[in-house]
Amino acid sequence: MSSTDQTPSVPATMRAWVRRRRGPASTALELSTNIPTPTVPQGPSSSDVLIRVSHVSLQFSSEMTMKLLPASLPPLITGPWIPELELSGEVVAAGEGAPAEVRTPGTHVIAFQSIPSVIAGRGVLAEYVRLPGGNVARIDASVVDMAAASGINGAGSTALKMIRTAGVHEGHTVLVNGASGSVGSVLVQLCKLRGARVVGVASGGNEEMVRSLGVDEFIDYRKHDPLPAYLEQHYGDKPFDFVLDCVGSQALFVHSPAYLKPEGAVINIGALESFSRTAFNVLLNRWLPTWLGGVPRRYVMFSTPPRRDDAVYVARLVEEGRLRVPVDSVFDMEDAVRAYERIATKRARGKVVVKVRSD
Length: 359
Known about the structure:
This protein is of the alpha/beta class. It has helices at about 25-30, 60-70, 115-120, 145-150, 150-165, 180-195, 205-210, 225-235, 250-255, 275-285, 310-320, 335-345; strands at about 15-20, 30-35, 50-55, 85-95, 110, 130, 135-140, 175, 195-200, 215-220, 240-245, 260-270, 300, 325-330, 350-355. This is Enoyl reductase (ER) domain-containing protein.
């Protein structure tokens, strides 16, 4: 432990959700009570941080991964396969090589595991995690909502990358599809902070929530189906600068010339039509020439691993009260399977969170 010569007292074992077989969360996951607790990082050679987990924000893609990957895949998967990517918690101990701001025990932090490590089953849905210091960021003690804080890394980093890739700024008009979701709800706020005019798309039941985020106009996609036809009718003469799609609607891109400026772009991070279909669409959308029927608009899709610098930036906005991470629901550790069921409905308004810490 870097700040004292004492080794902190941590239990030898901990609770963690472990995937025992391939399949949906309801049949694949089991709450284990005897997983070995990660060792305490010590000394100048270590830059790791041991964290007592408070809350874990679940990812929509987690259950897809559980269904696709075999339970055992040596040498990639060798030990207990623990899911999930991002968390909030407090520092237990840190090596002397960790960033100074996350070395003091008791410091409130947000953190994430790398995507390759999550795929290999070294996730964070556990009572304690040990992570590289570069994956850990301090949050001010004034941020008391640790459930919301647990979603800063994933939703915040993804939304920030979308608006930076697009170059959203004052004077732009953007369409945010999926404005009530975990990424879309943050995206709306970041666009407004940049001075853009935002049209948000979600179901009518989420209108009040989406309007509270600051959208200038709201569209109920259920009421206006098919959505592309409605957009052509109402925005054909005032096209968008960018379409930011958090759902993954291929039709939204195919028909975009009717409501998107020629120099604009559709930026998509959703996979509504399954991973395989989305992968095919990405190739089609990027490479099919217009003379063969390709869409004459730019299409962008990218991986969105969390970045510490992005998390720090978004965390500061949260601390300053300029941005909030909406939380749909919080489930106790014992009820994590119900949390996955909530995500599977595709109706969550913001993050679905598991409360790991019991006190």
